[in-house]
Input
Amino acid sequence: MTPALSICSKCVVAAAFAAALAVLGSPTGNVWAQDRSQDRSPVIDINSGNPEMNAAIAKARATLPAFWASYDAPKPSETGHSLKARFPKRGSGNEHIWMADVKKIGEGRYSGRFANVPRDLPGKKAGDMAEFKEADISDWMFMRNDKIVGGETIKPLLKSMPKADAEALRARMESP
Output
């Protein structure tokens, strides 16, 4: 278990089909032109000591080189490179949220846009830019041949989602 991940009693994780679609692209090609004010992406509270989630985060972090290899030299079938990053909530705890339009800004720092509505980050909304550190990355994903590659932290959450949403998301994953 990563010590930085165990300091909060709950980590809020947005992991919904709608959020995955927001991260990975939209049929119109302009994700940020869509109205996200009514985002109904479910938020699933996960205790920071949850062994299944901590294993998923560890696996995602261990496989980050696969993400960066595709990010740096994507094949034509690879799009929508996104990272999930941890942001401190007001009070205590963290919110883990998908970031789209990721950019390397140097010295282990990155920027991106919130891919869905932050729930516990006052003043922040979907599409807002934010910076984060490499140590705050908890997952990654991109699309390859219309399938989600990565997304390790989504897998433990599938059982907490409505069955239809979980099945739809599972069908979109390269390795469910």
User: Anything to note?
Assistant: The first helix runs from residue 17 to 24.
